[in-house]
Structure formats: C-alpha cells, structure tokens
Amino acid sequence: MAEPRPVLEMTGIVKEFAGTRALSGVDFRLFPGEVHALLGENGAGKSTLVKVLTGVHPLDGGTVAMDGQTVHITSPLQAQQAGISTVYQEVNLCQNLSVAENILIGHEPVRHGRILWKELRRRAAELVTRLGLDIDVSATVGSYPLAVQQLVAIIRAVGDAGTGPGTRVLILDEPTSSLDRGEVEQLFALMRRLKAQGVAIVFISHFLDQIYEICDRMTVLRNGVLVGEHPVAGLGRVDLVKLMIGKDLDELEELGEHHTRHAAGDLLLHAEGLGRTGGIAPFDLDVHAGEVVGLAGLLGSGRTELARLLFGADRSDTGRVDLDGRRVTLRAPNDAIGRGVAFLSENRRTEGLVPDLTVRENILLALQAARGWTRPVPASQRDELVAKYIAALDIRPADPEVRAGALSGGNQQKVLLARWLLTQPKLLVLDEPTRGIDVGAKAEIQKLVVSLSEEGMAVVYISAELEEVLRLSHTVAVLRDRRLAARIVNGPDVTPGRILEIIASGEHR
Amino acid sequence: MTTISRVHWKTRRTRMSQDRRLPVLVTAGLFVLMFGFGAFRYQAYGFLDGQVFMNLFIDNGYLLVAAVGATFVIITGGIDLSVGSLIGFTTMLTAWLVEKQGLPLAAVAPIALAVGAFAGYLMGYVIHHFEIEPFIVTLAGLFFFRGLCLVISKESISISDPTVDRLAQTHVPLPGGSFLSIAAVVSLAVLAVAFYVLHHTRFGRRVYAIGGNEQSALLMGLPVAGTKIAVYTVSGFCSALSGLLFTLYIQSGDPLHAVGLELDAIAAVVVGGTLLTGGSGYVIGTLFGVLILGLIKTLIQFEGTLSSWWTKIATGVLLFAFILIQRAMTARRGT
Amino acid sequence: MNLASLWRAAAQHRLFWPVTALIALLALNVPFTPGFFEVHLKNGHLYGSLVSIVLFGSPLILVAIGMTLVIATGGIDLSVGAVVAISGALACLVVSKQADQDSVAGVLLAFALALAAALVCGAWNGLLVARLGIQPIIATLILMVAGRGIAQLITSGQIITVNSDSYSLIGGGYWLALPFALFVVAFVAALSAALTRRTALGLLIEAVGGNAEASRLVGIRARRIKVMAYVFCALCAGVAGLMISSNVSAADGNNAGLWIELDAILAVVIGGTSLSGGRFHLGGTVVGALIIQTLTTTIYTIGVPTQANLVFKAVVVIIVCLVQSPAFRAKAFRARAKRSGPVPRPPGTPADAAHMEVSS
Predict the structure, then answer these.
(1) Which of B310, B334, C32, C189 is the most exposed place for a label (fewest CB within 10 A)?
(2) pTM of the prediction?
(3) Which residue has the higher pLDDT, C321 or C137?
C-alpha cells in the first residue's frame, strides 16, 4: 500500500541555543487529514520544534518540506502565507473587538477605505457557521468564555481570510488546558470538521485521554531527540509515558536506601477537599513532620496547582486546611508563611529571584519579610547567616554582594533555597527544584532534601522525574489530569512502573 | 457527522454591565442632569437661551479638538502629555509668523499643522522604536515646546491681523437665533472625521486592536509600529489645530497659553468613558466629557459666588468617580 | 592600589557619571563668572553661587527624595506639585491669621497642619494605588488636578503674604552662617537614608519594585510598603511647600511647585534609579536634583537666554532616557556592529531576541 505524501516533512532538524542543543536531528512528518499529537515533558523540544516550523526561531540544520518541496520559513507571517497557522494556549485575540472583527481584522472588506460592516459580519458569520458554531459575531470576544475564544482563534487561523492558499497545517498548542469537558467536546468537533476538510492538525496537550480520543498518530520527543513516531492505536499508555519520561538518570549518584528512614512525625498539614476550579479537583492530603511527600505526574497534571494551594499562592475555592492541628485560611502567601510553610516556585526568574538585588539581599528577603521592616536583621548576624548558607549550599561565586541575576540557574536555585531555609520552615514545598540545573547542583539539592527531612522538616517535592520522586519520598501522590489519582506509601514494591501505570491509566491497583 | 449542539453561551447576563457604551451613556446622562440643574436654578438668568448651550462649543472648541487627539492615543493605551505645550507653541508660532514676519495666515496655518504633526510623529517614533514609556517621551515634549515658546518670545504677542480678526469674529448662524464660531464648527468637523476614522476605517480598528492587546495585534499580522506612530502623529496634528483655534479664540500668542491643558484633555477623555488602559472608548464620549468640563465652568460663572478653582476640584472629583467606575468594570471583566 | 585601577574603580561607581556631569556643569560657569566657586562671608552669612545653587535647589531635592522611593516601588507620583501648593497655602493661611505672626508656636502649628494635610494627600494616593489597585499615573493624576483647586480654595484664589521672621527661616533664613534650608535638606536626606537603609524598608521597597510577584510569594506586605512610600513622598513635598512659600513669604496656590513633579522625576532618573522600579539611589537623586538646579544657573550665567532652559531640560531628558533604553542601546550597538562586520548574537535568551526581531 502506497503511503500518501506528507503535507509537511521536517528532516534532521537541529536547533542550538547558546551552545546547548535544543533539537538534535528531529524528524517530523504530518499527513493531510490527520490529527497528530506532539508529546514530551518540559524541555523535550516540543515548543522549539513548533517555533522553528513557524519561523520564530531560525533553523540551525535540517530541512523543511511542504508537499515535497523544500521551503524556507523565516517569519510567522511567512508561515501563515505558506498555510501554517498556530493557535496558542493564551488566546491571541483582542478582547475588546467583536468576534467578526477578530476573525477578519486586517482583511476587512472595504470600499473607498470605508469598512463594509454588514459584509464583514456576513462573512464572519458564514465562516463561523461553516465550522458548526452558533455565536453572535457582533458581540465582543471578551464577553464569551475562554472555550469560545479558543474556537474563534482557530476560525481566524483557518478562515481563508487572507490571500494565502488557505490553512494546510494547523498547530494547536495546549488548547484544552483550561477548558472543561463540554468545551473540549466543542473543540474536538471543530477539529474533526477541519480534519474532514483535509487540514493536518498538530495537537499539543498534556491530557493523555484527549490524545487517545482525538489523535491518529503521535511523535514523542525527549531532551531534543525523537524517541518515537507511532500510530496512537499501536502504543499503549504505559509505553507512551515511559517514552516521554525516559529512564536515563544513572548519572545521579546514589543516595542510599531511603526506605529504612521512617518518618512518622506528627501530622503537620491536613488538607481536606481542597481544590480550585480550573486548577485542581478537590483533594485530600496529609503531610507529617519529617516526611517527604513526592508529587508525581506529567506536566500540566495539576502538580504545581496543588502546591500553590498549600502555600496560599492561589486561593482555593473549596475545602480546608489544618496546619499543626489548627484550621487556617490561606488567603495569601503571608498566611502560610506565618505558619511555617515555604514555597519554591518552578519559575525561578519570574516568581522567585529579584535579579537586581544582591545574593545577600535575596537570601535575606523571606526572613526580613517575616520580621517586618522595622526589625532589620542585625548586620553581624546577617553576614554570618548569609555566609553560613552560601557555604552550606556551596553557592558560587561565594560573594554575597554579587547581583543574583548574574548567577547560573543552579546557583540561583540554591539562593532561593537558602532564602527559605533561613526562615526555618516546618514545611518546604519545592516545585521542580532541580529542573534546568546542572547535574552536580541537582544531586546537592537532593541530598539537602534528605538531610532536612531527617532533621524533621516536612517536604512536598514535585518533579517530572519519577526516579527522583521515588528516591526521595516517603509517600508518593500521583496526579493525573488535574486530579489527585493515588497516594502510595513508598516501599520496595513501589516501582516507577507502577507509578507510570497510574499516570497513564488513572487506575490504582 | 454530528452537528455541534447549539449552546447558548452566557452572554446576555453580563452584556448589560459590560457594554462598552455604558460609560458614554452615563456621561451623557450626567451632562443632561447637570444642564437640567442649571436650567432650573438659573432660569431667571437666561440659562435656557440657546446661546448658553452653543457657547459651550465656542468656549471649548479648542479643548474638544485636543481631547479628540488624546482619545486616539489613549485608546491605544498610551498617553500624550505634550498637548498643552504644543497648543501654546502653536499660538506663539502663529502669532510670531503672522505679526513679526508678516506672513499671511493661509500660509502659517499649514506650517503650524505640519510642525505639530511632525512633533507627534517624532515622539511616536521614539516611543515605539526605543521602547521608552510614552509618559516620559511626551513629558520631554512638554518641556521642549514650552521652552520653544519662550525662545520665540518671553512676552505675549497680540495679533491684529485682519484675517485672524475676521475669522475670529465670524458668526455661523443657526436656526433659532443662536450662532457658533468658526472654531466651534471646525471642532465639530474634527469630531465627525475622528468618529468616521475610528469606526469605519481599517486604521481606526487597528487603533482599538492595539489598545485591546498589542501582542495579539502583532501576531495577527497588523502593522503595529505604523499605527502607534500614526496615533501620536494624529495627536500632534490635533494639538496644533487646537492651537490654531485657540489663537482665533484669544487672538494672541503667549508662552503661557494652555498650560496644563493636557490634563483637561485627559480628564475629558476619561470622563467620556475611555479606558486609560486602552482598548475601549468613543470620541462621542470625549465630546460629552468636554461639554461637562465646560458646563462646570459655565455653572460656576452663573453661580457667581463660587470661584474658579472649584472647576479644578470638581474635575478631580469627576475624574475620581469615573476612574472608580472604570476600575470596577475592568475588575469584573477580569474574572 | 595604583592610580589607574583607582580610576577604573571610580568610573564604575554608579555615581560617577552624575557627579562628573555635575562637576562639568559647574566648571562650565567659571569662564563666565570668574569667582564662581568663591564663597564669602557677609554679615555672618555665607554667600556665593554654590550656596545659592543648593539653596534654590532645596525644594527640588526634597521632592526628588520622596519621588525616589515611590518610583522604586514601581510607581510614580504626579501630585507632588499640588501637595507643595496645598502645604504652602495652608501654612501661610494659618500664619497670616495670627495676631502675632512672629510667634514661634503659631508657626509650628502652621507647619504641623501643613504636614498633616500632606500626610492625608499621601495616604489618599497610597489608598488608590495599593488598595484599589489603580495605575499610579492615573491615581495620582486625580490629586494633581484637584490639588491645585484645593490650594486655591485655601488661599481663596489670592496670593497670601505673610510677614513672619520665624516663618521665613525655613526657606530663606540663615543659621550658623548657612541657609537654614540646607539643614532641612540634610536632615530629610539623612532621615530617609536612615529610614531605608538602617531599617529593612529599603530592601523591601526594592524587592517590591524589582519583582512584585516574587515579593508576594515571600510574604512581603507590598500594600503597606507602597502606602508608606506615597505618604513619605507627600511629606517631603509638604516640607518643600513650606520652604518655597517661606522663601518668598507668600503662598500662590496656582504657581507654587508648578512642574516640580517633572523635575523631580527627571532628577530621579538622572540619579540612576530606573523608572520601572527596583534599585534606588538616594545619593544619585540628590546629585540629579543638583544637576538640574546647576543647569538652570548655568544657562543663566553663560548667557543663554533663560527661556531656553526648558528646551535644554527636554534634550537632557531625552538623552538620559535614550541611554537608559535597552532597545536604543541594542539598535545603536547593532548599527555599529554592522559597520565593523558580523558579530555573533550576544548570549542571552534566544527566544526573546528572536521575538524582538519579529516585533520590530
């Protein structure tokens, strides 16, 4: 049986950023009328691949061909003209304009420079109904829920509004991450229509169920390398998750047998029915003093959202939290900090570091915030504390007066850790503390977590790497599709395979 | 193939409170209310004479033109502080060219307009391409043009040119015995053109798109750079035109003319319901904003015992009220 | 340490360029006014160009110090000019109503009332910005517009003159051979330095301005910090208002402190504090304010007509802002790079760099 010709074929794609390879020799094929899942964890290279394809990043190697002809795409506009449209997770529309205008802006029908409003609305309505949607195109986009906005963005992208050949390839970057089930149905119906019209769709999503529901084939990337191209029907979920997460973590040194350490401290945190709409479904969670609770799950599974609720970084809309046996209301981080909770965000630069301040000031910030402005840490004590933690965490350069923004990623992370350790928290919530930092720093941070828990500190540890979670945790909480799927006491019988199964299928034996 | 079930998205309920025309209606209502109050209170002093209403346009025509220019800028989410200085500068330039250099007004007016537009273009260029806050760039513009006024002359230059005199004195008769000045007619024409441009041309829609979300506008392939620069050019042009109208109104050039007028213009735009964060607003609202500011002055004059500074206080209070309304509206939209 | 390395260290100090500019400006005066740097004692008072620069620059320095803190939190305060007018108007009104205008108690009461009014103004701004979450430019615009009206309301639209030696001390009087204003400025500067650097206030302000979200996540009470900054700024403006009205023994609700907010913002920017907030430099601000005052004096002494003062100022604002603008530097750099051949893209975030190219 002759294979149909791919509409898009990327071969041997290479992309480097400042010496590090983000993509090394990736192949990607897309056929007309298919929905193709692009999968991988953080840093796997999904978004880099999309950006190379859409001309946001220039290519460092490899070729891109459409319909067998080599093309050179160097700007998003060019990509659009070549028939490649992208709809991003954050809807790129103008909320203040009408649906009709958003679909056709830049291509409005005009006569003698005057916009023909009736014609504009008629055309927009036609496009909207052709794709099976029933909305008032003269209402502003902002008055519709996000799901509809998402659909409008897609309609704009494929709308044939411009002079180009029409959309051949549609890239949907995490379109479903904030939609509810009914809204996802709407989106899928639209995708099926487009598919029937011969449009090839690249679908990026963290929801495995959705991928198995809508996609025909998938391409899996890991660390910038292609690890597989499969028909969806030919690859089970467990195998898929294995492909995505990978098992090449031997470079980390052994930390010894953790299972022997037993942590049955007092109950420190007790969350019951805690949840936030659009973030994470209501969950129960207990954390004891001296216990490391690992949160396992894929990117977008709700692990960050859970952590933020425990810290009051986001407000919960259901459930309650007891800290140290007392009911607390976590309206803002302050409320949690006051009870001895510390939180290291996964976004070091935007939510952690104050890059213009020195290492010393960054380290002192949390302690100082807790003491209030009137009680500065005395100079002698201050320098001693900072020096102690710089030495203890081996922050380099070991100069407290350096701008924190000038440090490497791993050292910045250590600065932020030092910042919280200074406050001597009872519960330390770490969201991806080892992501994007070098192997040495990674091992040091892991060791630190072990010793902190031995000293009685409770830790909630989030990581995309299952081995890391299993090595460190006493209890593993598995998250899946924004819901806490299982809580397992770690032990010799708890293997990555078992966690994988839960992540993949949601079933807990 | 299944068809998508017809879902009625919940828009009706929220539509009323989020209708972008609502602030304009509030402003128009407030104007009518205030006017009614004046009519009732000062009945005996001829408040209801049609000319009192027309004088609002005659006395504030220049402000209307400046505020229309500011509306363009504010809809894109920017701000222009150079308005007052540019008006002052235009009065000086015009007076100087006409009186000291003996040029005919017909030649001076295009020069003045071109200078204003070019000044706006330059500021827009720096704002967009060097990514400096509009606030700072137009602040420099404020200094610069006020300075140039003084460089031209430290003294006021009164204009005795017959053309200026004739234009200033011309009454455009209206049915019912009242009249408008040339400046008032020009300002209404500017308003009409601005309305047409904003609502019926691609350029106008781009102005709204940029104010709604500049990043999106860029990704939609719209010429953001050109539009942003054009908006400041429009504001510069309007300021210069406003300066010409002000020259007619006051028949002199003075380095201290129109000091702080940018604040009145911005206040009129905000009171007219335009969001200072950009993306939403109507020039018709700006008209009502200008009329309300003018009416406050008129009412205070009629009252007789109240002093002129109440104008400023009342403007501040109105500003506060409308900013609060805006804040409440955007907060609701955000959730 | 040899001379070369000393020089290099000095050149890297953040005050280097502002101070150099100040010295250059001062030196520029010498050919025109031979005795420019001379200071002499007359009737027990020090006189000289330097003294008058500091004296006339005092209100600006005060306002700029307050503005520095507000800008460091990521805000801006446009209402300082109006606060200057209100404070001066109120103080003069109180003094003028007294039977004995020279009475120290009466003058002190006037000061207290004026500063209380300034405090209310600052609290109002702080409330709008921190509690109601209104953009600082817009929030302070309200008081900028209404405040002048309030000042005129206080003075009934008149210029209130006072005849009080006690009152004129703060802005025009002498003490220990020096202008009394100098002591006030020194006191406020020292106070603000102590308030921000001896306590943790400075650190917390810089954190809030430098990264608002990170500050929230470490538990800094940003609202309280912001309110304090606006209140402090208004108090500084209040003192400046007393000084200005005392110097001329009159309060003019319309013109007192006109445009001082713009000068103050300029002084802050010249002093090296970024308008986007974060790190602030009180010393730099003081130097910046002195530069502006010296510029005014210089323009006068070298014979440029005073009217060109504003044009000069505008040019300075633009140059300072262009130099601070990363986009401008990038463009200037790229233009130079093109001329000297291709250079590799500087390391950094490639995504952003590519993005900027898309957007330009």
Answers:
(1) B334
(2) 0.80
(3) C137
